[in-house]
Amino acid sequence: MSIGLHNSEFKNPVIRWVDSRLPLFTMMQKEYGTFPTPRNFNYFWNFGALAIVSLMIMILTGVFLSMNYTAHTGYAFDSVERIMRDVNYGWLLRYVHANGASMFFIVVYIHIWRGMYYGSYKAPRELLWMLGVVIFLLMMATAFMGYVLPWGQMSFWGATVITNLFSAFPLVGGHIVTWLWGGFSVDNPTLNRFFSLHYLLPFVIAGVVFLHIAALHVTGSNNPLGIDPKGPQDTIPFHPYYTSKDSVGLMVYFIVFAVLVFFVPNMLGHADNYIPANPMVTPTHIVPEWYFLPYYAILRAVPDKLGGVLLMFGSIALLFVLPWLDGSPVRSMRFRPLSRIAFLLFTVNFFVLLYVGGKPAEEPFVTISRFSTAYYFAYFLVILPLLGRIERPLPLPESIARAVLPRGGGPIRMAATAKPMEKA
Amino acid sequence: MRMLKAPMLTAMALLGAVALAAPAARAAGDEIHLPATGFSSDGIFGTFDRASVQRGFQVYREVCASCHSMNLLSYRNLRDIGLTEEQVRAVAADVQVPDGPNDEGQMFERPGRPSDRFRRPFANAAAARAANNGALPPDLSVIAKAREGGPRYLHALLTGYADPPAGFVLGEGMHYNRYFPGHQIAMAPPLNPDQVEFADHTPATVDQMARDVALFLHWTAEPELEQRRQMGIKIVLFLGVLGVLVYGVKRRIWADLH
Ligand code: HEM
User: Fold this and answer.
1) Confidence (pLDDT) at B5
2) How far apart are CA B254 and CA B258, in angstroms?
3) Is the pLDDT of residue A15 over 90?
């Protein structure tokens, strides 16, 4: 072993040669091979891996779509249809990309839900959580700009409505909108810059995902019990246990994905987007893609434009500070009987927002959206902070192994660094 | 491990809810109920009945093509619905298409070729409006994807002309239609009994022509549909089998843990 080389444990000479100079293999082995992982993950812990797969699928299909796409108002619509008709398996590329966005959001919504239910946002994972929210925001921006690219009626009018939101800001609003558009309406310059950014942002997302996972591998994963692993009896190596378990989830994911792509490729889209963009004709109902509907509902819940915009951005900003809104030291809602109910209501409420977001702004939907918006904010700003103080959590299990193994996993072997049980 | 099943079910329920909520979320406004017309392209095993699509093409060519363009199609695409090479050439050669400039710098007209796009009836939108009382006949290439209900809507639209109910004020040059949003459409009833003569002696009733042209328009909008579904069935079956195997492997791996 000469000085300056990494002491590689790999036997294969080629791998060893590389690994001694750049210990990628050692790193992979450490982070994904032997990485000690709580033994009690349920299938909700699949969704992080599924999110990565989604991101890779989007980047891969996106790069090939770009080879045949034309970012010009006069050609964009037809170029997308040409991809579907004249490029070999172009229809497959496009439908995978379009439905892949929906799959990505389904997966990430469940992933976020998992984090909220099991308290994964709490110390020491606050930064990990905030990086996740950054990813979520970047995804929204990417998906919004991607939807503009086929230049159908909903592309155009969706872009017009959403960019116009910025005009609500006093004084600078109008300037911001002109600056975003690169002109005085959504037009060719807008389409061009959206294409450029739509290509760029997923790579930014990939960078933040890297940080997200780097942070995860410092703190280690949370688990359904929300208690820290106390020693080796509480963890198992990531491979082969969680590689095999993630593969099961991946199969289900692929089946759902395939059913969407091959049998109902346009179910989650809007028929109007197959009408070429026309600035002279406004569609009767302008609705964004389904994954924006809850926020769209919040936007429209208040009669005041600026108020609506602030509420909408606020609803996501709250996620950033969630770790500090929830004061309870108990992570998993399994042991928080009251918060659990409040959070399940929050979940139902989210679907109500999604539903009314797709409805025209008339009664009874307006009233429903107001109550739902109120509950959304109350959950974060009133209920959670309050329950953090007054709720009496159920007793926490002694250790993960005690809770999940039939004979309690034998005597507890305390790891040197294990902290005393945090009981509230 | 009961603990592992519950989250799986919850996750599936969430997925399902999103799938249901999304399309439900967009239906709005005054509901118009389309009749439940059946098409050969329905269902996951549905295909395009070649005879019907070909009759539909004939209806398009002899009736609709005088007003509606079909910019995304080329004559060569007609091979996919069973026209022979000679038939495709003959259909293409039947129209004069603009070409050029030639060596003298002049534009000229020549008979169409299979590689040409369907000839458009009007030089531009203004000309189309001028000939249609100010209304613009939309391009029909993807119309079946651009309307809720697809071919079912198209058939309903073409057979849905009627006298307006008492008190309904019809605009100048407009026609009452039961299925068109707002019920006033600028397109005069395009189909009349026996307007075309089908080579296979199918009686050319309005309903029959509407069915055939609706199916033809479904094909023009989704020419990949048959290939897509066949591929989908194979892939889903494959993934199902693989999924069972993967689950088995996972069980084996986890079995030694306890
Ligand atoms: C592109 C999107 C995303 C990718 C690729 C991604 C990927 C991952 C992966 C692979 C894991 C580890 C496996 C797992 O715990 O499931 C993870 C954990 C985590 N993610 Fe994400 N994530 C994404 C978005 C988000 C978002 C939007 C949030 C929250 C707003 C979030 C919050 C978390 C948290 C808190 C953890 C640690 C959870 C735990 O171990 O309990 N992630 N992420």
Assistant:
1) 57
2) 8
3) yes
Question: CA-CA distance, A40 to A223, in Å (whole number)?
Answer: 7
pTM listed for this prediction: 0.91
Residue whose CA lies nearest to ligand 1 atom number 6: A48
Q: Where are the alpha helices (DSSP H) in A118-237?
A: 126-148, 153-164, 173-181, 188-219
Q: Phi and psi for B217 in degrees, rounded to 5? A: -70, -30
Taking an 8 Å cut-off on Cβ atoms, the answer to whether A241 and B253 are in contact is: yes
List CB contacts (< 8 A) between A81 and chain B: 72, 141-142
pLDDT digits (tens, 9 = 90+) for A277-319: 999 999 988 999 999 999 999 999 999 999 999 999 999 999 9
- Is the Cα torsion angle B230, B231, B234, B235 positive or negative in sign? negative
Q: Ligand 1 pocket test: which of A118, A131, A216, A221 has the largest number of ligand atoms within 8 Å of its C-beta?
A: A216
**Which two three-digit tokens encode residue A387?**
């329950």
Rounded CA separation B248/B229 (Å): 28
Domains, chain B, with CATH or none: 46-73+117-231 (1.10.760.10)
CB of A333 closer than 6 angstroms to any ligand 1 atom: no
Long-range CB contact pairs, B250-254, < 8 A, 24+: B250/A244, B250/A245, B250/A247, B250/A248, B253/A240, B253/A241, B253/A244, B254/A241, B254/A244, B254/A245
Contact in structure between B150 and B46 (CB atoms under 8 Å):
no
ipTM of the complex: 0.90
